[in-house]
Amino acid sequence: MTLRKLAFGLLASFAFASSPVLAADKVTFQLDWLPGGDKAPIYVCIHHGFCSEAGLDVSIASGRGSTDAISRLAAGSSDIGVSDIGALMAARANENVKVTAVLSIFNKGPHAFYVVKGGKIASVKDVKGKTIATSPFTSSNVYLPLVLKDAGIDPSEVKLIKADPGALGPMLMTGNADGIIAWMTDFTRYTNQGKQAGKDIVALPWSAAGLELYSASLIASDSFLESRPDVAKRFVAAYKKSVEYTKAHPKEASADVTAMVKELGAEDVEGSVNDTLPLIYNDVTAKDGLGVFEPDRLKETWRRVSAAQGIDPAKLDPEKVVNRSFMPKE
């Protein structure tokens, strides 16, 4: 009897050992720009283990702007990633790209003027007649005419200088520009530069000046959503969990970023994480919930995007740009 039990146990052990181990589903995540604290959730998802817990093996592809990210997703070289939903709306209206938004990340735009406290500019209306420096590539430039119009300023009344992103801070500190255009995700970086120059730097967010819209969003190729819907749902749930973890543990989330991107400085990353969180968690989140695309705000986003880019608003139903079915149930 003992021999029979032993033989049975050996057979069972052999069968278990020879059975295939289920491999994690591979997913390629597309960044819209370089790594940084504003991208913390994807690094948290991977390094902290939320992705692997969901049965996902995620790799990260760097990008060169929202348009580049959308193109890569449409081509199928990446599965899911992050991009400005305004850029996606324009691409859907003009080219009908097969890419869809599945989760809101920034429910407020990150665009802002940065100025020196006590200088020539104290409010958005004060930029009239002033010299403003901006990067040639930022999506903020698309919305600038709308912000100026809302403030009663003709774009010709502002002297706009295009400069390398790395030169914007020094231009502001030295007075070569009265103000600069940059994202709220870089607030700590610019205020630290100001401290080194003995100046207090103030941000004037465009969202507070009336530019209410969705911005960075989780977007995915339609082929990925259609061919691997279960994988997509597991990824969205893991990513959302990572966003929540980042809010609750910003220091640990920053460490997850620097653990994977070693050339980044810990202080800069942590500052960027904390600067980014108000774009995700704010009064809009309190009203609508994390990750939600509220229909009226979505319509307003398209109204502003179409006006900024000179697109006939009738060319797109903004509801066709989003798919809410991949959002995890609360």
TrEMBL record:
<keyword id="KW-0732">Signal</keyword>
<dbReference type="InterPro" id="IPR027939">
    <property type="entry name" value="NMT1/THI5"/>
</dbReference>
<dbReference type="Pfam" id="PF09084">
    <property type="entry name" value="NMT1"/>
</dbReference>
<feature type="signal peptide">
    <location>
        <begin position="1"/>
        <end position="23"/>
    </location>
</feature>
<dbReference type="InterPro" id="IPR015168">
    <property type="entry name" value="SsuA/THI5"/>
</dbReference>
<protein>
    <submittedName>
        <fullName>NitT/TauT family transport system substrate-binding protein</fullName>
    </submittedName>
</protein>
<feature type="domain" description="SsuA/THI5-like">
    <location>
        <begin position="40"/>
        <end position="253"/>
    </location>
</feature>
